[in-house]
Write a structure and sequence with these properties.
Length: 378
């Protein structure tokens, strides 16, 4: 067995295993009580903002954009420094994606760039909490409000983080989470949409379940029979099963521990690498209380690829997060061109994610540090 250190990894306890097994022994594998329990448990970490559980972070974005009602002719302003789903989920609804540049230090959507990008067709401003560090959500809310648009926070990296004393999930009109294996907590695959708006939540719940209308009072043909259900607007099946929701509820009980351990490792990297001339360590803005999903080291002087290969050759599973979204051929084919967001492209050219996950030991982190310093001859 290889001793390759992954850049991210799930942390599964015996309690997690038992929580899943308990559902398997019960009556409900899906659309049962574990779903509503997980949604309530998640809301306890979002300042009480209600949650709708879905099958992935990508599904959460697709559902959130559906709840926002976007379609052809509408524009979504977002960051290119993200996984492609933030943009592609909007494009799949027929909206035009408008990329605005990022802050050069955090990699988060720059409010000034977003302000310059909004038009009277902007329906959503979608920020991403890169690496777990919340975006400038107060300023971005102002940008969205001026445009008459909704603010969406793609918090795939940042469940458990807070901004200026308020938990992620309580700051935007719509917030989306991802519970993929490498994220801050996992349901294997999974995600959620949270919103303070009853109307947006209702639309999200409907879209998650094919758009089915079961309430007789809302049906167009209520006398069809006791079995009757109708679709008034198209949706998809994005239901997260009880088995995975039980895992999520169990993981949420360990979230604060995950946060502490990730912070310890982050600080260990900072302390050991801050004096290296060839790198730049991540920044933390005043007011940010971060549950770090990534450790995004910046490698200067065009040496990122060489360091990547040096570490991979030593069985250290570093990663690059992310290719600017509009560099993907699917956006290139739509007419987007390189050079659009210079800060994002520079950030991408320098970014390298070092291993970061709760079960990473101090000695394993020191192995990463030693290999990085060795590369620079330090």
């Amino acid at each position: 067995m290889s001793d390759m250190l992954p850049y991210g990894r799930q942390s599964i306890s015996e309690e997690d295993v038992e929580a899943v097994a308990a559902v398997l022994r019960g009556d409900w594998l899906t659309t049962g009580p574990a779903v509503s329990a997980f949604e309530a448990d998640l809301a306890a970490h979002t300042g009480g903002t209600p949650a709708v559980a879905v099958t992935s972070g990508t599904a959460a974005l697709h559902v959130a954009y559906a709840a926002a009602g976007i379609g052809p002719g509408d524009e979504v302003v977002t960051t290119p420094m993200t996984f492609v789903a933030t943009a592609s989920a909007a494009a799949l609804h027929g909206a035009t994606v408008v990329f605005a540049d990022v802050e050069s230090d955090t990699g988060n959507l720059d409010p000034a760039a977003a302000r310059a990008a909004v038009t009277d067709r902007t329906r959503v401003v979608a920020a991403v909490d890169y690496a777990g560090h919340p975006a400038e959500l107060d300023e971005l809310r102002g940008v969205a409000g001026t445009a008459g648009a909704l603010l969406l926070e793609d918090a795939a990296h940042s469940v458990g983080s807070a901004w200026r004393g308020r938990p992620v999930g309580s700051l935007a009109d719509l917030t989306t989470f991802s519970f993929f294996a490498t994220k801050n907590l996992t349901t294997a695959e999974g995600g959620a949409v949270v919103s303070p708006s009853e109307e947006l939540l209702a639309r999200a719940r409907a879209f998650r379940n094919h758009g089915l209308v079961r309430d007789r009072a809302a049906q167009r043909h209520p006398d069809e029979g006791g079995w009757h259900q109708e679709v008034h607007a198209f949706g998809l099946n994005y239901r997260l099963p009880d088995v995975l929701c039980a895992l999520g509820s169990s993981q949420l009980r360990r979230l604060e521990g995950f946060k502490r351990r990730r912070a310890e490792l982050h600080a260990r990297y900072d302390k050991a690498l801050a004096d290296l001339d060839g790198v730049r360590t991540p920044v933390t803005r005043e007011g940010a209380d971060v549950l770090w999903h990534l450790y995004p080291l910046r490698v200067l002087d065009g040496r990122r690829r060489a360091l990547y290969e040096h570490l991979r050759a030593r069985d250290i599973g570093v990663q690059v997060n992310y290719l600017p979204a509009y560099w993907h051929p699917v956006f290139e084919d739509l007419g987007y061109r390189r050079g659009l967001c210079p800060n994002a492209e520079r950030f991408y050219a320098e970014q390298l994610s070092l291993p970061l996950y709760p079960d990473l030991t101090d000695s394993e982190a020191d192995r990463v540090i030693e290999a990085v310093r060795d590369f620079f001859g330090a």
